[in-house]
Specification:
about 70% helix; about 280 residues; disordered C terminus; single chain
Length: about 280
């Protein structure tokens, strides 16, 4: 429901904003295969359902997920498996994590794992539960991005293969440390903190090289460009065609990515510090 509603909302909005020459392509996207040809275009431009589709695409998944969560929480309380306070705590954490993930772009695992450690879970249980929770949200977001043509499949396959191997190695390492050394939660958090520190250092190196490239391309001794006088507008003027928007420079794009990675690393470091300091 969440995936279908997200894809429908995106393509309906794109169809409503599409120019006339691209309307047939945007309003009949292959992701909307379950709709007859021309249905979306008729809904948007003939029956004016654009606003209704956008609102319902948000309300229906929200009500469905809230109903499932409320029903399951009520079942746990009735079976005396959980207390009301525990259900409220974990539900509030999940709600806050979803909001932060949507607003700031941080991963849910950065909050889930430290929270489970603070609630007294073993490191292996905390990592496994966090990975399971993130699997649901990540799969939903990934499929929505895929059906809205926002995924570069070559990069996704490359990084996915590397992450698959790395996740297996990390999981085996956690189990080996727990079985052979009897390690505490602080050591697991320390290993994660080392990874965050290493990622931050690599990001700083990339950021520094990007800043050098941007600043090096600017000549401080170069004179400022002169501004041409404004021409007098004639009564009947021909409208010039709009110039195409210049693409974003690779240096600026890399700088934005570096700042996003630094923000991610900061949130990771803060979560690890909280899990250690508040234990």
């Amino acid at each position: 429901i969440v995936i279908a509603a997200g894809v429908l909302r995106f393509h309906s909005s794109r169809c409503a904003r599409s120019p006339m020459n691209l309307r047939n392509k945007y309003c009949n996207h292959r992701a909307l295969f379950y709709l007859p040809f021309g249905t979306m275009e008729q809904w948007i431009f003939t029956q004016s359902f654009a606003t209704l589709i956008s609102v319902m695409a948000v309300l229906v998944p929200l009500m469905a997920c809230s109903s499932v969560g409320l029903a399951y929480a009520t079942l746990l309380v009735k079976q005396n498996t959980w207390k009301v306070s525990g259900v409220a705590t974990y539900s509030s954490m999940a709600l806050g994590t979803g909001i932060l993930s949507g607003l700031l772009g941080i991963g849910g695992g950065l909050i889930f794992s430290p929270f489970f450690l603070l609630m007294g879970q073993r490191p292996a249980v905390a990592v496994a539960t966090s990975s399971t929770c993130v699997l649901v949200t990540s799969s939903s977001a990934a499929l929505q991005y895929l059906f809205t043509d926002r995924v570069v499949m070559s990069l996704a396959l490359l990084y996915g293969a590397v992450n698959l191997v790395s996740s297996y190695v990390g999981t085996r390492l956690v189990h080996w440390l727990q079985d052979h050394i009897g390690t505490s939660k602080a050591l697991i958090s320390g290993i994660v903190a080392f990874g965050v520190l290493l990622s931050t250092m690599l990001t700083m190196m990339k950021l520094w090289s990007t800043l050098e490239t941007i600043l090096g391309s600017v000549d401080p001794a170069a004179p400022l460009p002169t501004v041409a006088p404004v021409a007098t507008v004639t009564p009947v003027a021909t409208v010039a065609p709009v110039a195409p928007v210049a693409p974003v420079a690779p240096e600026a794009s890399a700088l934005s990515v570096s700042f996003l990675v630094m923000k991610e690393n900061f949130m990771q470091g803060f979560s690890i510090w909280a899990s250690i300091a508040l234990r």
